[in-house]
Design goal:
mainly alpha, 11 helices, 254 residues, Ferritin
């Protein structure tokens, strides 16, 4: 693989890893604060799944980069503009309905993405996908069940769930944006074809919202920029907290 190909693969693996890392951090913020004990455990376990996946992908990304970095270096020493997670996953938890809406959108997307990556010609990516898809199926079901429960629940829960869906919808269009990196790796059999994921994703979302007796938000303005390292102001606050110890005590060992 040429240096150019290595650079492209490195950026692609960062994209996959950063979604998992940032969402894992977000979900971890629910620890001890969820509405009920069962959900405290569920959200924390999902967070651990995401962070475990991020660790595996970042370890491979460091190997691809070939500059002697570790997965910890890539997680804790990169600046904001070098993170490539989708804008959706960096959004604040909000109330429980907002967390569920965010999880429904991203888990449904990841279900189709990682199903496609099972066939990746890159053995490392395919291997990570094989482990991740088992966890993602649970994440998707968990979010779907709660969306239906809240949407078809009380008047209050219905309003909150619909509001959450409406508020986060603007970040879903970015999930299916493609660029030269994705197209090049797709041609090489490594990456998924994002253009083929939007239809199945939308079908699944419409099905869940139909069961929940909720309305699919109307398509409109979609916010974007993360694939170029441009984020909402919320990512900066996440990194300030997540990277604090490393920045306060550079290269500390314990």
């Amino acid at each position: 693989m040429s240096m150019k190909q290595n650079d492209v693969l490195f950026l692609y693996t960062l994209r996959l890893a950063d979604d998992a890392l940032i969402l894992g951090h977000r979900l971890g913020e629910w620890c001890s604060k969820a509405p009920i004990l069962e959900e405290d455990l569920a959200l924390t376990n999902i967070a651990l799944d995401m962070i475990g996946r991020a660790e595996a992908i970042l370890r491979y990304a460091a190997e691809v980069e070939g500059k002697g970095h570790t997965e910890d270096d890539l997680a804790y020493k990169r600046p904001e503009r070098k993170f490539y997670n989708h804008l959706l996953v960096e959004q604040e938890n909000g109330d429980f309905a907002h967390t569920i809406a965010r999880q429904l959108f991203i888990s449904t997307f990841e279900y189709h993405l990682y199903t496609a990556l099972l066939k990746s010609s890159d053995e490392n990516i395919a291997g990570i996908a094989a482990k991740a898809i088992k966890e993602i199926k649970y994440h998707k079901k968990h979010a779907s069940d709660w969306c239906i429960r809240l949407g078809d629940g009380t008047d209050e829960s219905k309003v909150r769930m619909q509001t959450a869906l409406n508020d986060l919808w603007m970040y879903t269009g970015e999930l299916f944006e493609t660029d030269e990196i994705n197209e090049w790796l797709h041609e090489g059999g490594i990456a998924a074809d994002l253009s083929k994921l939007e239809g199945p994703w939308k079908t699944d979302i419409v099905d869940v919202l139909g069961q929940a007796k909720l309305t699919v938000p109307t398509s409109g303005y979609m916010q974007t920029g993360s694939r170029k390292g441009v984020h909402t102001e919320k990512l900066g606050y996440i990194l300030a907290e997540m990277q604090y110890l490393q920045r306060a005590y550079p290269d500390a060992k314990w």
